[in-house]
Amino acid sequence: MAKRKVQRRARRILGEEPVAMVWCELGKPIPPPPKEVHRAAGKGRLKPGHPWLLYVGGVLFFFVLVPMMLVGKLGDMLNGTSSGEGNSTRRAVSSDGRPDDDPAGGVFDGDWNLSAGQLLLRWYGQSPDPKRLVMLARDRICLAASPRRTLSPTTADDFRVIAEFSLDEARAEAEAGQPRGFATFRLRFADGSWLQLGRLAEPQDADHFLRTVST
Hints:
The protein has helices spanning 4-14, 35-40, 52-78, 115-121, 123-126, 203-213; strands at residues 20-26, 132-136, 140-145, 160-166, 170-173, 185-189, 194-198.
């Protein structure tokens, strides 16, 4: 379960005991919006902030692993067994074998002008950390985030509300019986748009949240 300081902060924000809450993230990167849409929304960031360890990992990747991969690929080409052979014209396909023509990548419904798309355009501008706390109250849904670049979902106590929706404006929904570690849920808005969230933290909180929104 969430630590007491997280629970206290949630109660203070909501003014009541949350019905359910869970830390979560976008399961996939935000797809690139049309330039004019991004510009109209203030050209906010579309990627999370990266802690310094990721920069170190990137340096190691480019200066150690990439040269090794290039050497291996060159050897394959010389032997006539390039791994890219025959794949240059292959189209991306979905799991059912059909062409994958979903520009939204399963992150949201694809319409940037509706509620889910507008929320995505502000997602990382409101907080560079990818984690969001979704809190269900009796009459509303609140999304909260920390202003810090990184946080621990078990000890965070400085998160603040970045979006709030009445139950007439949005609802959370999920399928029952999802495997722990791979579970996802959707925020579905009154205008028909939806946003998919996953990477649920704190297993007990996640289980309770999913039971609540799947009933």
